[in-house]
Structure formats: C-alpha cells, structure tokens
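[step 3/7] inverse_fold.run input=structure_tokens len=259
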C-alpha cells in the first residue's frame, strides 16, 4: 500500500506537456496584452517630462526677460527658419538659446532636450551634438527644442555692423507674446517627413509666451511639413514657417499660436 501511494505521488509531482503549453500560452497572451500598455505608459511619461522641460524653459525665458527689459533670444540663424535650436553655432557663436547657456540661466542642461527625441543631432551629449559647447571646430551644439522664427540672427558674411551670433533685428518682447508659441519640439526640418519630425505620436509639444504648455495635434504642421520635406536646406521659405503680419496665415508657427 505504501509503495502504491508513493508511486501515485510521484506521478502527480510534475506537469504534463499539455499543461506546460497552456501555461506558456497564457504567459504569452498576458505579455501581448501588457506590452502595448507599458509602451504607452513609457511614452506618456516621456511626454510629461517633455512638457515639464518646456515649462522650465518658459521660466528661464522669463528670468532672461526680467534681466533684459522684456527681451528674449528667439528667432532663427541667417536664412534658415528652422534653426532656432542653436546653443553654439560652428563651435564659435552663441545665438538664440546660446544666450541662456552663456548667462547660466539653466543649471540642468537635460531640460534643453526632449526625452522622446530619437535623432542624435538633437539629443543630449552625443557624438553629433557635443555638450557642453564648444565642440570641435565647425561643429554645432543644438538644443532639443526650437524657437519661434520671429527674427533673423546674423551669421558670418552678413554686412557690417551686424556681428555673427547676434540678432540682426530688435529682439522679441515676451510680454507681448502671451498667446504666441515661443518653443516647440523640433519641427520644420527640410528633407524630413511629418512622421519623422513627430516624436509624440503625431503631436508637437509647444510652450507659449505666458509659459503655459500644451500638445498640438498633427494637423497644425503635417501638411506644411510634407511640403518642407520636399525642399533642400537651401530652399525652405520663411512663409512656410511664420507670418507675423498675418496671424491667419497657414504657416507652422501661426498654426501653433492660440487665438
């Protein structure tokens, strides 16, 4: 009798192949259900961090405006209206957000960079984007966000008395731009499709002159970005990006603005 009981116990101590396959199938099903949810949760966390970065930058711009009679360093470099991301240009000049860097207005440089960005040119401290500046001769240091292209900043070769790396026009005043988009995720790069430009599932995060932030739907930039994608870096007109004299114009930054 004892031997019989022992044999029965031995038979019940393991799983059959069918039982193992059922367990494996259940685990695989749970993974398939949970992975998309986990992926969405990670992206939501990155999106929240991006919005937090933009809020910090809004505060930094306000500090700068307080110190410089309401003026803020936004715009674009030379004739390239998408280049509002410069911190250091050609390892020599510090236009645009470079003014914030040189003024020590931001102690945590990671706040210059969107955590969802996948292009190393706009990521923090990569081979393509050396941080801190200056990098090797001729190399740019870029932020992970870009400025409203309201005014042109001078580049080498501009006629005197413009100094490279300085605004060629009067700087924008922050108090007059409460409903204007001042910063956004990287957008408007020629030869880049709307899908490549968007890092937040068809949305762009934007910061406004009153330091508020929001996610703007793809409809605000998708058609324009599709036009820009067909252009070279030498041929993207400012009109596709902004028209300060006509708020109703179909331009990227006009579409970001709040009415």
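[step 3/7] decode complete -> sequence:
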């Amino acid at each position: 009798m004892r031997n019989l009981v022992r044999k029965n116990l031995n038979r019940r101590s393991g799983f059959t192949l069918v039982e193992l396959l059922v367990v494996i199938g259940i685990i695989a099903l749970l993974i398939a259900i949970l992975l998309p949810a986990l992926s969405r949760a990670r992206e939501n966390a990155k999106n929240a961090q991006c919005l937090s970065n933009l809020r910090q930058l809004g505060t930094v711009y306000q500090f700068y405006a307080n110190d410089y009679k309401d003026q803020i360093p936004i715009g674009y470099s030379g004739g390239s209206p998408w280049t509002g991301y410069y911190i250091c240009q050609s390892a020599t000049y510090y236009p645009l957000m470079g003014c914030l860097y040189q003024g020590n207005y931001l102690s945590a440089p990671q706040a210059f960079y969107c955590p969802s960005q996948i292009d190393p040119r706009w990521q923090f401290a990569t081979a393509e984007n050396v941080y801190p500046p200056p990098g090797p001769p001729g190399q740019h240091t870029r932020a992970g966000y870009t400025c409203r292209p309201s005014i042109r900043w001078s580049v080498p070769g501009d006629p005197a008395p413009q100094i490279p790396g300085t605004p060629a026009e009067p700087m924008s005043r922050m108090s007059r731009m409460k409903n204007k988009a001042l910063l956004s995720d990287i957008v408007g790069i020629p030869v880049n499709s709307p899908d490549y430009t968007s890092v937040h599932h068809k949305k762009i995060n934007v910061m406004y002159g009153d330091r508020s932030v929001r996610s703007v739907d793809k409809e605000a930039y998708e058609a324009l970005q599709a036009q820009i994608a067909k252009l070279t870096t030498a041929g993207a007109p400012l009109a596709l990006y902004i028209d300060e004299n006509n708020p109703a114009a179909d331009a990227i930054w006009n579409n970001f603005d709040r009415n």
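[step 4/7] annotate
The radius of gyration is 26 Å.
The chain has six helices and ten strands.
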